[in-house]
Amino acid sequence: MLLTGKARKFAQEDDINTDYIISGRYKFKIQDPNELATHVMEDLDPGFFQRRQDGDFVVAGQNFGCGSSREQAPQAIKYAKISAVIAKSFARIFYRNAFNIGLPLIECDTDQIKDGDELAVDLSQGLVINKTQNKRISIKPLPPVMLTLLSDGGLVEHIKKHKGFALK
Amino acid sequence: MTLGKTIIEKIFSRHTGKAVSANDIVVSKIDFCLGQDGTSGIVIDSFTRMGAEKVFNADKMAVIIDHSSPSPNEGVSRIHKKIREFSLGQKIHFYDVGQGVCHQIVPERGYVVPGDLVVGADSHTCTYGALNVAATGMGSTDVAACAATGQNWFKVPESIKFICLGKLPKGVYSKDLILYLIGQVGADGATYMSCEYTGPVIGALSMEGRFTIANMAIEMGAKFGIMNCDKKTIAWVKQHSKRKFKPVTADPDAVYNKVLEYNISKITPQIAKPHQVDNVCPLAEVAGTPIAQGYIGTCTNGRLEDFAEACKILKGRKIKKGVRLIVAPASNWILKDAMKKGYIAALLDAGATLVTPGCGPCVGTHNGVPSDGENVISTANRNFKGRMGNINAFIYLGSPATVAASVIEGKIADPRKYLK
Ligand code: SF4
User: Fold this and answer.
1) Cβ pair B364:A24 closer than 8 A
2) How confident is the model at residue B96, as a pLDDT?
3) Residue ranges in chain A modelled with pLDDT below 70
4) pLDDT tens digit string along B57-78?
5) Contact B47/B263 with Cβ under 8 angstroms?
6) Vertex B301, ends B126 and A19: CA angle to 5°?
7) How far apart are the C-alpha atoms of B114 and B228, rounded to whole Å?
8) What is the sign, positive or negative, of the torsion defined by CA atoms of B183, B189, B193, B196?
9) Which helix H or strand E contains B196, and what residues bound it?
């Protein structure tokens, strides 16, 4: 699977929490994920939704997605047509939520990516290609459980298909 | 030679029927699962999309309406209605508006006991670790999978052992201790880990004080925050639950990722400054910062003992004019007890306002929203920008005593001077 798009970085790189990804103000009110997506990253970077383009990547530092367990966070990113989040590391609950709903997360050294860089991500080869800087960055391989969930199309499809858990 | 096991490795071994160790991936049965009004809408959607019809065991699931309770607008009302209909239809345990915060209700009504494995669609589910329960927050779809199958997959985490030596000084509470520890290790200092809190300081704490500590394990990124089961735990659980249980202790030769030892005897009241929970300093550094609103409540510090401590300071005194204090008991049981003890009357006399038992202004969805530029001093567990509903406000976190002292003066104040 090859994904291409522009890198979107924020002034704050580390510890971007789920309140910033989608504020509690909206997640309790809005049930339509497409509408929720219009508020993605709003408290951290007002106007982000208007600026981003389909297929872009959210790029961050350490501990992306820390804070609450709201699944609306990866959902808002996915419905904003962000193709993947690339970060140095992810918080645990966010990590599971993203794979459960089919939003790919990529762990790699994001110091080699600047805001606006053109990226191509090759998940099967485990590579991020920074076209702007002409660099190849290797991705931390995905655990087999995550690969199974992604290939089944998320947790709902996994449970439906196997009538329960069929991992390992 | 087999190596010793941590509490969490033992709980997973017991639940899977085989000896498992840190970093193993397991599919395990769970003992209980729960959701709240902000997350259960998606739990229901995912549950339905999985093709599930009945919850695996209606007695092992609870849904609590606590985050926006009572509903402030029609959007939330629609979600509440959906949750209410699902819960009543499935005959699971259901708590409607005004009964309390999920993390108070679940232990208080006796649903969880030592040695359990529990999953909740709320990040502070780790609170029950104070009862020697392996409890963790997950997203809605993960909880839907638990509800449908009674199982989920887990990576058995490595553990960090915190040894808290010494004695908490007067005017310094479990909230100060956990803020101090978070300041030491950072917001991602325990990511994916299980924190085992041990040592004489933990042993000396009441169960209420222990809940405060386990509650905030997630603020270091941890998956679990767990404690040993001692006499106090057993007495508390027996008082609240009829279920039989078997506590779990770590082996003396258990393997830890890290062992961190702290002498607590010299710590002072602590404050987490905006907008990060690990942005912690001694209160003295920010003393005098003006505040517009105080908040005592939440799953961290909305319990009887917290109101008792606040009353020690506020009884017979007045909140400064122009400053407001919002009080939200963590459950209706706590509200009734606090009324019996006269705490509520004392707080109202001081000028506080009482809101519905539940999350209150914690997450900024239905009341107590601060204005632009205002500083808030709160007993909650998070101070992220926008957390209380306004991105232009500033949230400082401290103990109930610190909040009480601060609303009297209208600025961040050290509670110890009121305790002589
Ligand atoms: S009181 Fe605050 S932290 Fe606790 S469950 Fe409610 S919103 Fe979450």
Assistant:
1) yes
2) 98
3) none
4) 999 999 999 999 999 999 999 9
5) no
6) 60
7) 9
8) negative
9) strand B194-198
Task: Tell the burial category of B420 from Cβ atoms under 10 Å away from its Cβ (0-12, 13-18, 19+).
Answer: exposed
Contact between B132 and B111 under an 8 Å Cβ cutoff? The reply is: no
Is there a contact between A92 and B191 if contact means CB atoms under 8 Å apart? yes
Return the DSSP state at B189. T
pLDDT of B371 above 60: yes
**Whole-number Å distance between alpha carbons of B350 and B204:** 31
Q: Read off the DSSP letter of residue B51.
A: T
Residue A17 forms contact with B (CB below 8 Å): yes
Residue B188 is nearest to which of A20, A30, A66, comparing CB atoms? Answer: A66
Cα separation, B419 vs B397, in Å, equals 20
Q: Hunting for tokens 């009504």 — which residue is that?
A: B109
Closest-CA residue of A relative to B43 is A71
The whole-number pLDDT of residue B1 equals: 56
Query: What is the ipTM metric for this complex?
Result: 0.91
Estimate to the nearest angstrom the gap between the alpha carbon of A87 and the chain centroid: 9
Q: What is the pLDDT of residues B318-358, one digit of tens each?
A: 999 999 999 999 999 999 999 999 999 999 999 999 999 99
In the numeric block, the tokens 């979107």 are attached to A8
- Cβ–Cβ < 8 Å for B180, B216: no
Which protein residue's CA is at the shortest distance from atom 2 of ligand 1? B362
Q: Using a 6 Å cutoff on CB, does residue B397 contact ligand 1? A: no
Contact by Cβ (8 Å): B166, B263: yes
For B353, phi then psi, to 5°, come to: -120, 140
Q: Which residues 82-111 of chain A have a CB within 8 Å of chain B?
A: 89, 91-93, 96-97, 100-101
Q: What is the mean pLDDT of residues B282-289?
A: 98
Phi first, then psi, for residue B109 (nearest 5°) are -90, 10
- C-alpha atoms less than 13 angstroms from C-alpha of B384 in its C-beta half-sphere: 25
Shortest CA distance from B189: residue in chain A: A63
Ligand 1 geometric centre to CA of B299 (Å)? 6
DSSP B359: S
Q: What is the mean pLDDT of residues B398-412?
A: 98
Q: Is the dihedral of CA B353, B355, B359, B363 positive or negative?
A: negative
The pLDDT score that the predictor gives to residue B18 is 96
CA distances from B176 to A99, B1, B272, B294 (A): 36, 41, 9, 17
The DSSP annotation for B226-277 comes to EE---HHHHHHHHHH-----------TTB--SEEEEEE-TT---EEEPTT-T
- What are phi and psi for residue A52, nearest 5 degrees? -70, 160
Angle at B355 between CA B351 and CA B360, to 5 degrees: 120
Nearest CA in chain A to B51: A160
User: What DSSP state is assigned to residue A2?
Assistant: E
Smallest Cα distance from B335 to chain A, Å: 26
Q: What pLDDT, in 10s, does the model give residues A139-168?
A: 998 888 988 898 898 999 999 999 999 987
SS3 A128: strand
Mean predicted lDDT score pLDDT of chain B: 97
Question: Which residue of B212, B359, B366, B397 sits with most ligand 1 atoms within 8 Å of its CB, as the best mutation to test the pocket?
Answer: B359
The residue written with tokens 């990226």 in the block is A119
Cβ distance B75 to A25 less than 8 Å, yes or no, reads no
